[in-house]
Design goal:
Layout (H helix, E strand, L loop, with lengths): L2 E2 L7 H4 L2 E5 L3 H12 L4 E5 L7 H6 L3 E3 L1 H7 L2 E4 L3 H12 L8 E4 L3 H4 L10 E7 L3 H9 L6 E7 L5 H11 L7 E3 L2 H16 L1 H16 L4 H30 L2 H14 L2 H16 L2 H11 L3 H11 L2 H11 L2 H4 L10
Parallel strand pairs: 2-3, 2-5, 3-4, 5-6, 6-7, 8-9
Antiparallel strand pairs: 1-9, 7-8
Helix pairs in contact: 2-7, 4-5, 9-10, 9-13, 10-11, 11-16
This protein binds nicotinamide-adenine-dinucleotide and magnesium ion (MG).
The site of nicotinamide-adenine-dinucleotide (NAD) has 24 residues, from α2, α5 and β7.
Length: 340
């Protein structure tokens, strides 16, 4: 595995380019602001007319363009609109207008790897994918650090696409903690698997099952929330800092013994891995992406129904109430929906 740092990147390369960032959401705001603060003189944000994100970008005095105008203007076009709209955006607004020899960039390999976008052959195509949410990419940068990034090149028309990718990664702060070279395929498939099996899907289902088990057994929902939701962060912080062993060093021996005894009963390794392999196969075969894009074409009915059902779960109501008692949690929060 190759890891690059700021000293391996030529940050002046990106500083001399016109960089357009399409989308000003979680990743978009972080890239645009970090690039600007790293000395990229010409940064523009591209949004659809009437976009709700426009006033947030304007509040930062960033130049706003339409996606087509941005494509005519940019040397580097970073696509940070949602994955499910990127193919149409590329076809309609970017492909007809991008300058000969420009660079097209992504923060996730999905559209290129699954060939939803087949870029013009004269373009450089690279990926800079921060391994963290956009709000953390911005917050860490402001603290003088950076979130590690993955870089990959899918098309190297200029012969210098990797240098440009490293330069870009350095300007958004990735070179401060490490930039790892990978491929679009590896980034895309491991990213989808991680979020489905462990980070988002696995964890939320585990939390919910634990919460419901305690509440159904007659315990106070507030107790269930503290034990099965709130404390997840405290445990994850210890794992983040020093791995599983660091967490087990910090908890009581009783907790550690119960961990060894009951963990594999709740998540039986062989059974779980069998299902995880099926999840991985659905990702590798393109079936997951095919189903998700079909869902998007018909207006996301299943997706929206799930979002509503989870939002109505008592775990959210209890959580809101309890977080109200702990005002320090909201102080200095990463997400402020009015600004980012
Ligand atoms: P987001 O949903 O937070 O923001 C999307 C932005 O695009 C919004 O500003 C929205 O107004 C704008 N937008 C929507 N439709 C558009 C269109 N048709 N044309 C132009 N702009 C449009 O998105 P995100 O989560 O930041 O994801 C962006 C990309 O970054 C995706 O490829 C995603 O996989 C990748 N990524 C995201 C994260 C993350 O932290 N969320 C982490 C790594 C990679
Ligand atoms: Mg991910």
């Amino acid at each position: 595995m190759r890891v690059y740092y700021d000293r391996d990147a030529n940050v002046t390369m990106i500083k001399g380019r016109k960089v357009a960032v399409v989308g000003y959401g979680s990743q978009g705001h972080a890239h645009a602001l970090n690039l600007r603060d790293s000395g990229v003189a010409e940064v523009a944000v591209a949004l659809r007319p009437g976009s709700a994100s426009a006033r947030k970008a304007e509040a930062e005095s960033l130049t706003l363009l339409s996606p087509a105008d941005a494509a005519r203007w940019a040397d580097v076009m970073m696509v940070l609109a949602p994955d499910e709209v990127q193919a149409e955006l590329y076809q309609r607004d970017l492909a007809p207008h991008l300058r000969e020899g420009a660079a097209l960039a992504f923060a996730h390999g999905l559209n290129i790897h699954f060939r939803l976008i087949e870029p013009r052959p004269d373009l450089d195509v690279f990926m800079v994918a921060p391994k963290g949410p956009g709000h953390t990419v911005r917050a860490e940068y402001l603290k003088g650090g950076g979130v590690p990034c993955l870089v990959a090149v899918a098309q190297n028309a200029s012969g210098t696409a990797m240098d440009l990718a490293l330069s870009y990664a350095s300007a958004i702060g990735g070179g401060r903690s490490g930039v790892i070279e990978t491929t679009f395929r590896e980034e895309c498939e491991t990213d989808l698997f991680g979020e489905q099996a462990v980070l988002c899907g696995g964890l939320t289902s585990l939390i919910r099952a634990g919460f419901e088990t305690l509440v159904e057994a007659g315990y106070a929902p507030e107790m269930a929330y503290f034990e099965c939701v709130h404390e997840v962060k405290l445990i994850v912080d210890l794992i983040y800092e020093g791995g599983l062993a660091n967490m087990r060093y910090s908890v009581s021996n009783t907790a550690e013994y119960g961990d060894y005894l009951s963990g594999p009963r709740v998540v039986p390794p062989e059974k779980t891995k069998k299902v995880m392999r099926q999840v991985l196969e659905d990702i590798q075969s393109g079936r997951f992406v095919h189903d998700w894009m079909t869902e998007c074409r018909v207006g996301q009915p299943l997706f929206k129904a799930q979002r509503r059902r989870w939002a109505e779960h008592s775990i959210e109501e209890v959580g809101n109430r309890l977080r109200g008692m702990m005002p320090w949690i909201g102080a200095g929060r990463l997400v402020d929906k009015n600004k980012n």
